[in-house]
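In keeping with the milestone schedule agreed at the kick-off meeting, the structural modelling team has produced records for the first pair of proteins. Each record is given below as a sequence line and a structure-token line. The laboratory manager (R.T.) confirmed that both were archived under the project's standard naming scheme.
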Amino acid sequence: MSKGKLKKKGDTSSKISEEQTELVSAALTSSESWEDVWHEWSDADVFREKWDSGKPPEDPKAMTDTSSLYFEDPEGKISLPPSLEVHYWRRPADFLINLVPTVVENMVSFDLVTSNHHLLCSELMRWIISEIHIIWKVCNLPGVTDQIGWKPWEHIYSLCKPGKGHVPHYNSYGKYLIRLFWMGCWRKITVDDLMPFDRDNKLLLPASSCQSELWPMLLAKALIKVINTRPHHEDANRNKMLQLSKEMGEFTFIHHLTGWIPEVSSISFPCRRKTWDFLRSTIPEFFHQPEKIARKKLHASRWRRASFSDHRSNRSEQSKVHPKMVVCASFYPNQLHNEPFVYTNMANSSEALRRYTLCLHHSHILLVTRTRVCSLEPPPLPPPLPRWKLFRQRKKIVISDEPRTIPESKPEEFIAVASPFIDPHVKSSPGPVSEQVDKWSTPRKLSHKAPLDSIDEQMETECSEELDHIATEPSDTCDNAADDTEVAAEDKKKDEEVMPTVPDVPKSATKQHTIVEPIKPILPETWVELEDFPKCFCRLLVFHNPETYPHHAQKSLLKCSCARGTYYLYVDSLKPSQILISFSALLHWGETENVSGSDVPPARCPGLLQAAPYHWKSRQCQPPIVTIETNSSKATLLRLPLGRHVLSFHINAELGYHVHLWSKTLFFFGDEDSIMSHCTKESLRFTEKATTIMRAVSKLVALFNDRHGKKPLMRKNLEKIYCPKDKTPIEKWHIRKAFSLALYIMLCDALDRRMTPLERFAVMALTADPSLLAKAPRAHSPTLHQDSKPLENWNSNQPTAEEVKAATVLQAAFRSRLVRRVLRSSKSVGKDNIQIATVLSDMWSKVESDADKHATSLLRNMFEFSDKYTKFSSCQLDEWTKIVFADYSVIVPEKANSWILLFREVFFFTKETLLLPKVYCPVRYCRLHIINNDTGEELTKLITRVPPHLYQPNMNGYTFVAEVMTIELPPAGAKWTMRLTGTREPLPKLSQPTTLSTFSVQEFQDYYIPNNRNIICGYAVKVTTPVPATLHFQTSSPSVMIRLFIMDHESEVASATGQGVAVIPVFNFLPSKEEEPIAPSCAVEEENQNISPTPENEIKVLDGSQQEEEDSTSGKSDVAADHSPPPTWLPEHKYLVKAEVLRQSWDLDDSQLAFAHLLSYRETQVFFPEEVIESTSDMSSNEEQCPDVPKSNRKVEEEKTNGSCSSEDTSLDLTKANFMLRVAVDKSQAESIEVKKDTERIEQIKAIKRAWEAAEPGRAAKAWKVRLNWLSQFQPQRSDDVPVEEPPPNESDEACSPVPDNTPSISIEELRSIVVPPLDCTPYIRRKQDVPTMVDQEIEEIQRRERLEKIQAYQLERDQLVEERLQKATARKERMKGLLKQYDSQQAAMVQEQQRFQDIRTQHNQKSTDSRKCPNNRLKKKQDDKHMDDA
């Protein structure tokens, strides 16, 4: 398959028949999506397939050359590994000369080892052969069904109808279709019958023992096509599987032939026990049974086989031949590695593999069949004893002078593996075999023939096949796995009768049967010791059958560029769940382009899938719990504890990916919108907990008047349910209080009215909490507060001390009586209990009308009223994934290269709410601002996003402002959506019923003129009514640091800082007192606001605006409408919007600077010559010719719906430094605001100049002459003496002063080129004193007094410093004395301890000496007595 053969299409689609399977296809343009590399399999397409070459011959009359009629694969020839060198290609008709080519000849068995010894040098071919044998053994179980479950040739289609059990026929044109599983579905792969050969005329593809069969070669070509999708150059540091196998990598042909999901895990010696436990719980176990039980089972199996043969034939064939799980293992190949420790593992593996007739040079995959913890042969039975010896048996007593030690026997732990490359004639030994001959060095000696004539070996072979049959039936990892996976050794006889070959027949019959029926493929088996298993094998491959999982979902995407996707997983279960995740990635295959020009081509990064816990209420990234890197297909098992979990999946691949999830637990997998709807519901643990508590309360209510003493027991059971045992008494007390309060509020909601005194007493008796009414009723029932108003006589009276004391005594007496009555009613049975039970039953009947709702409300209120640090239920862990959300959408106008204000609304919070606003917008530049209207501060942002924040209720709410900058034209009908995600109801509410999305935008654009104060512009704002507005300032240079601020009477009230762009999200302009008196607005959005200092945006609000905030009233519309204060006179306001350059960041070039200087001179000049008028009019054509008229404001004011105006002033030169100010207000308030340029300072300067000219006519002309005379001295000398003609003065212009005749003739171009040296300003600097003054007695006294004060201050400071140093020195001495005393005491104590220890030691030595002397004295006395006796 070549990369150039890919085609493009508009949409990528995929059809899945299962209801719960969901496949997302990329609906992209034709330039962004690839057509499927291989089309999905369809029986209808195969039925309509044309099996010829598809091209007519060049000369229909001359049919001598038939090579043009053969089908050639349009994708080109397959690429074989370097170990197989192709010399030429031939078709079956060319190399099968004396045989008739057929696709399949022997439909009962096959042998792919005997005829392919020359291919064993290739790891790819070994894996193909071994995996085909493994699938045949696993799916074709002997004795289970008479039909063959899986046939490899059924993947091939040629000249046949699609269907189960079809037989492909030989196609003389050479066109075949192969059905393989790839990228999540079955694909149709087209191959031809061109076969590769080497120099020795040997076929380089697997062939069966039947020379005329073509199915192994055709199937291998299709499999090699699939493996060629892997990149040729990969990063071995990231792909660890590439270090283990260069030819195979992570590919497994079992996945492509069956669709089973491969889960790959590593095997290590330290974790061998974990591997052993997994294998014992997954695959069958070998064990022995007594002989009598085996015979009984044998007869029972015969009867069951005869009785239920019809029932077995009615089962589905798929359930018979397809296991739930298949376990395989592979070992290190002999190849070079980058990591040195791999060579150590290879050496250990090679030594261990030779013990079991395997070789490291020929690595492949092996089938793990079963485990064993006993010996293969059953232990010998004890000799029979007469019955009379069984009575009063004597115990054998072994007399020994040494203690008996029981030898520790090593447990027998073995694992059976099966492979077609295991030699069954060589007996494997558990110990090291150093002198064994490597069977791979002499491949001709390897033969897989029929079993020998010996009955014992025939029996052994059949038993081995039957044990293999049992090994391929692994059970699921459930609790009764051990009961279903045990296999008895004595059951061999039972299964041998089911097999075609009966072991009881004589040798001749066996031989005759062997000749008549073809030989089935043999998969020999050997037992590997557990200690050697991690040495031999490095990978464990577990293939999961997806048909055993009832729930599954999948997502796929194919693109010609980088394919990325984000999905979410939702799991809610009362039991631990396991989810199998399969990930397939499609990368650039074939030779990659070497852009860098180096000899080593660039390495390809594998596809990446990461799954991590996700919470919509937190922006903090959680560490991934699942990471899959692959270049083909890979799976892993995700284990989750019970409860509700939400995970985010981030997928990245070069061309495409496919992710598939299977589980036995219900789950949901999809995009964000589909998963968030499930998170709004209560979790299963929460519902179960709430239902359990409600049932316990119902039982307590039903047995409240019970006379049999069951009420205390029911109350204890209820407390056990909602209050755990492991809590402290204080925590239990808090939980009980929360439960009582939640139960009371739930009953109030169920009644939907005010409780009577008897009902309130009944609730207190039910909860046994007399202090219940002191907490909840006033907050929950407003009617109680109305009835508890004091009497009119007490409104103005002040109670005396005696009255207060009397009231306290009465309250204490009433409370004590109430507590005694409540506790007595909650425990004992009396007259009150009958009435209370009746009231409770009436109240509970309304609760049971909607039990689920009230149960949820009860537990939810318990969570709210309990301490946030006290966790009394495990279902509280699911609350982090519980969300509520609301969406607000606005259509984005189709405007390009413009600034648009999309959304500006005020939200009010009634409770403390944790909220996360998230914006979905098709425009890349989109910003959301949130301002606290009470403080005028903007909430901090995390880069450009607003993080989760705990919003507190306030008076004026929070203003949400959204703005976008469209560089390109947005898509038609694109929507901007803001999603507010919170923890619980209620979410914030809008200040008005409908959202405001229509704004009027005024744009002001002008040139930038530098000045000493770095002020860019200034605009005056006047309003007639309170108008909230959004200000946006933008410069032509995006790197300029600017500051936009609003001033009111020379005091700054709001500011914003940014780079290239500065935005004040909202500011409320108030009218001056010159206007008519107005009433405060009922829905004012914002008075003053600021933006936090960030690199992009900084807003600061000064204290001067807080006074305005108090004058204007804003808040909810429903409250302000009912309680609107009378009209008041507003203070006078004078708003001025200015912008300044920070840090001198706006650098202009020479042309822009000269242009700005001319504009500055033109702006303040009143009387100047005509030459300046003409020059400035040429440069700025939009300026008026009359000099006495000031420059007009370049104002573009347009009202656009849902956005701002994007038209540009055509008279403005955009190559010069310029800026644009935008003011956006509500469309209905567009007439209430007036914005114009601030020309107050310029008008003052012009007025002064006009006054000078009026007082002294001709002053301007004289000044111009003096200026030109001064500039002429710096004028460079001309090269020619040709005089420059001056244009005649314009006499029609009365404002222009006549130029004197002796004025130097200097053109405007020369004025621009004159370089003025720096001006020496020393003569103009005012000195300190030019004339010396005489010092008199008064001045001397003043100077003496100043010196004396300085000396006294110095002496005082010095005395303080000396005193402080003395105090520190004294403290140090005291500390040293204390340390010396402590040291002396410790030294004395140590001497005493040493002396005491020495005394004890001396006494002990004395005792030891006395004890030694005593035996010597006794012995000496005996000797003396003996001598005396002898004497």
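The second protein of the pair:
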Amino acid sequence: MEKPEDSSIETWTESVVSNWLRSIGIKEAYIEKLHKEEVDGKILLELSEEFLKRETGMKSGPALLIIKKRDDLVHSQKAQKNKKPVHSHKQTTEKNDHGATAGDDDTITDIKEDIKDYLAVRKTKRDSKPRHFGKEGVDFIYVKNDVLLPESGVIDLINPCHEYKSFAIAAVLDRQKLQAKFMKEVLKFATGCMNIRTNGTIHFGIMDSREDRDGTKYAHGEIIGVPVEEKDMYTDALDYIEKSFKSDKELVRQCIHPPQFIQVVSSNSNVVHYVVEVDVEPSVSIVRNKVFSVRLPNFNVESNKVQLEKETIYRRVGSKTEPVDDLNEFYQQVRFRDTRREEAERSHTFTVPKLCQDLGKKLIMLMTSGKKIMDKDKWHILVTNRFQVKDLQCIDFLLNMNIFCVFDFDPDSMVSGLCHKYKKHHAVNLHFLQNYKIPSSMSIRDFESHLHLFDQTGWIFCNGRSDFKGNEPSCDEKTWVKTKRTLLKDCVSMICKDILPKGTFQVIFLLTSPVDTPFLNTFYEFVTDMQGHEDIICLAESEANFMKWQAFALQSCDMETVNNYSVVGMTISHINATLQSVQPVSTRATKRLPIYVKGECCLDPCEEEMRRSLEILSVNHCEETSPEFADSEQDKIEQQFYHGGKITWLNLWLADQKYVGEVIQRDAFHDVSKFVKDSPKWGLDQAPISCINIYHHPGSGGSTVARQVLWNNRKDFRSAVVNPSYPAPVIADDAIWLREYEEKDPQKCLPVLLLFEDCDQEYLYDVKNELEVAVNTKKIARGTLCFIMLCCQRCHNPEKMCKEAPLQNVAVTHKLSKQEKMKFSAKRQKLEKQFQPEFILTFVLMSEEFEGNKIAAYVKKFVTHLLQGIDHASVVTQLVRYVALLNTYVHNSFISRSHCEEVLALSIYVDRFRQHAFETSLSDQAKLVLIHLRDEKTHIECIRIIHPLVAKEILQQLLDDKQQQSDLALELLNNEALFEHRFGKYDYMKFLRDLFMRRCKIIKGDKHDSLFSPLIEHVADKECPDKAIELLKEAYKRFDKDAFFAQQLARLNYRHERFEEAEHWAEIAATKMPKNSYILDTRGQVYRWWFTAKCKAMDGVKKTPENTVDAVKTALKAIECFKACEEAAIADNETMNNAGFFGVVEVGCSLLKLISSLHVFSNRNDSKCVRYLQTDFVPDEIEKPWEQFHIEIKNLRSIMRKALEWISEDLSYFQTDLVPDDEKTFERTILNPRHWLVSKSSVYGQYFCNASRCDVQSHASLTPLMKQMMIYHHGGGNITTIFSHLTDQKDSEPVSHRLERIISFYPSNPKSANMPQGDIVNYIASHFALSCVSSQSSKLAAFQELQKLSLHFPKDRQRCLSNALFLHVLLWWPEEHDTEEEKEHKYETVLSAVEQLQRNYDKKLKDIPPRKKRIYTHFFLSNGVGFQKFVHKSKVEQITKHPSVSEKRLKWLSGEVWKMPEMSKLLRRVTGWTEDERVYLEGPKTGFRIQALNTSSVPHSNENVTFYLGFTLRGPVAYNITVRT
């Protein structure tokens, strides 16, 4: 077996190293420790004795053995390889300080020079400067392995000479030996300096020769350091002065300064070492006429005590200290040496001052990145320690900056430091380092929201917080390193690598107090994670503080870099004044808000910053902008807007102040302004929340109009832009706060104008609902306008939306009015004098009106001209293609600039050139079509094409014949640089996902509803379905095999009749999300479409039991899948998905059609098909072929009936006029589900009773089941289809005839017929429906008879159907002529039913907000008796006909319908009262609470009221609640 020694150490694995360690006798515990540390051969070669002792806890003996044996092995392998003998090299003995005995010298391994060369592969060592002579060492640091200048002799007597001692061995000796060795070197050196009259410093812990230790080659003057356990050992050693000098002891004491201990820092070691330095300063006033002789201490091993050597006079000769040979001559030169010293001291006193550095200019250059003004969107990170009291008065420059977070090392900062002062002016979030540890389940975006990172300044207490009641004390440096350094590292890493892209922020180290290790570690972490120093600035007033900082910084950066990015010597007050002169905000201005009594109040910035869900527009907005900033940026801001950028408040302010030209006010602006001005007109019918909608074509300036409205009304209303990333309850809370801020009376406040931009309708409903609840809770008086919701929505048919509600909606289109054309033409002429047309392209397009073919031709011509000569192969052009693809298909999409830089492979190391480097990397064409945007919250820059039409045209023209859109999309999907880039990842991933997944929806402003994303539909239609499928497959892989991508693949495949593939993907999706009803619906749809295709394939072919087996099997599989969908939907409390029930019925009807078409069942007069479906009968022809299906087919009637009943119940509970707008909607939206239910119920009944035959038969000959099926066939199978006869009267046959026919199928004496509960419900409902159209019909039962029949409903209300309870309420509602006793009895009966109805409703609604599933009102209370005391909703709607559903809904919600005179004639108002904002009906002795349909209409005080009564499956509801006068 080959021994480890036979192979090169470099090739050894961890196991081989372990085996070798065993072979040399190392303990197993140490071997296991090294194995865990993954020590292989390469690492073994670099090991030092120090590392082994520190990291493994190994004793000195085995550590020394490992190093010795390793070096011996390296030596032997090297020697064998070179085929030459090994030559020994003795260690240098000259100036050896490694101990008092020769035995100590032997502990250093004798390794051959060639082996040492092999091992000593090190980085180039950097030069370093020593501590300033005479300065304290506490604020100074050395970096390990840096090199000082060589030892020096006498220079000019004032500049010190230097002598180095490694002192490595002596430093670990006991106290007596160490002090003797230390003082021997100090006194020898000091005597030499004093006798020559020169200043000098002796350094212990600096290599004094080119020695090798631990297998490492050291340079002369290299900083190593020595361990110092007790500093007093060195200080007390100076007591040898009294023993070693016979005379002049006091003078010697004055010349030799106490030892200074300078810490040695190392990036890869936590062991603290020091360089011990002793300064010698022989001032002429002390040493005049003196010659010093000394007896040096020396430890004698034999006697084990310190002995003094003979008295000797020393002098400095060059870089050495040597005894004086010629004493006579030396004494004769004493006076000469004194004179030289005196002259040197005198000349040193009058040194020429240093040239004054322009620190102010340097500071400005660093803070502005070379610009005239600081970037107002740039984030700053502040690292600071304890502030001086005087400095706290000069922090205005900090208050005017965007501070992302502060790393504060002052534990008292919250009590008396910077945080205490800062939080008086800005809101802060107080954190500790551990708060920045992100949970594994949380995304970066969620983590940012959780800590409010971009909302308020994050204040991170890095070393405890003294006022905190929890367990967060400050700690000493060693404890901090052990407990908090890792937390600091993680915190800095997260900020630099996941939250803020490089170039968007600047780190400022403010050295206001002496710096310590934790503070310095922060610099190291930032330099490491930011990959350089260029965005890090150091500001220090004290040079001493800076020197320690500088010494530490030199570990990571060179001297020039550190000095270039540091400003040393400016006080905080000077920094404050200097930086305020270049900040975009001239003063710390206070924003002002309008108040109810027409004055103004000041807005506390802390309060404002805590309400980040609103961007509050103040009366004096932007007035704090400095004139310098306005002058320097005005052209850029104006050009950015007219080139296609979003309008900013600064645009409007600059226009108001005449810095730039006016912004055109379109006609829509005046329309919206009028709506806003007219809104706050008091009246009892005034709703507390008014809604105004601006519908606009994409890119037509709708957002500009909306913001102009806010700007021009900021003095009359409190105005704000809503940030839709916050949930509705937060928006409502902040809006209420804004309304009532600094107002005395909540009843007397200005309305708040809230701007919502491109928010989902559902979100707007949520906010409105929350605001209504808040207004009601505050008990604001009725008729008071509190909020105006200005909703700016992208839309492809704004004119149509405007016509639907002309008093609420305003359209902004590309088409210009005559007046607008004149304005645009004049403005265009002015701008073209100021800018090139291509740099104001969006405005040029606007002035051309975007008119159909005209603008299409204009854009095409422009893009063609623009792209001439473009390099199609360049990476910039590829980037433009990517952006064009996203902008064409994903609304409001963009790519962050850091993503672009990643694609362009830019490495920009100096921030001041960052923007320049990015822009110069773009081609001329890219510069014209790409516009730079900034995220309003994070200030992170992003890129998009100036207009969607331009993006679409660029995409078409940049794709050559060889490349199609699917190829480009696939390329984008697989671009690793974009996909894996960390910054802006959330937005990019969302846009990329939307590119493949988001369907078009009219309700969201799209032109049409689509089945797939526009890109997928384009590829499937214009290229080929195969490419669309392959594209989705790649997206499925890219997005971690997301179940929803598998669902889309299933849908796309079955739409193109690739059913095996569709089945495969549907099963994958269902396996991944087995409880998602929408995915289970898709699985059912696969089989439904497959079944339909199989039926279609049999058209024109005689259908037999044999050739229909496959189709029947597929249909039953579809029904099975839809049933699973039903179960999942019922179990899901968050949604109400009825797709499975619809699917069961549709497939069931199609299957019944197929069954009835078989020859064996084709005779219509034969009841064989019905017998097969309803009994045990099985025709011989199908018995064998369909053997596996019989049970399932015979269960079909029951399965379909349950589905129909579920749908009916859902429709009887809830309104259906809300179009679902969730991405998870099922395959097709049933536009009129009530009509669908009538149709399918009829088909269902037809197949199970042979309707054509039953219609001609006597009713007496029909079985009860056949009668039931005939009732279904004629539209009486459930309460929804029965009442649908009242709304659907287009049939030529009178409704009364249809209802009479339905009633005719019931027993003539229903009370004795023992009918099931469901049949009783349908029977009674049919009579109610008939009474609405023919109150004199002979088939209409007496009202009292129906009351008696209702007594057959179960006494236990929990067993009653909801429809039964609903009818029970109608039947037993008291009448005017009833006695008090009868009324009370009826109210008790009704109340018991209503209580159960409420419980059933709560269960049916699940956890869905009521506004999303609005209750359906079937009847209203009228003035008659019996049937006549109820009016069906269809009759009310005949009075309130409106041209559109949305306008009708608006009239109902606003309450306008109740003002119509016809209503008061048709309906009966009842009386009651309100108490604690609850409505009660007058009449019953016990309180009969009535639910208010519109809670905002309930008076806040206890009032007598009147209202209309509606009847729902929740119970009676109150409409139009009015206080009775």
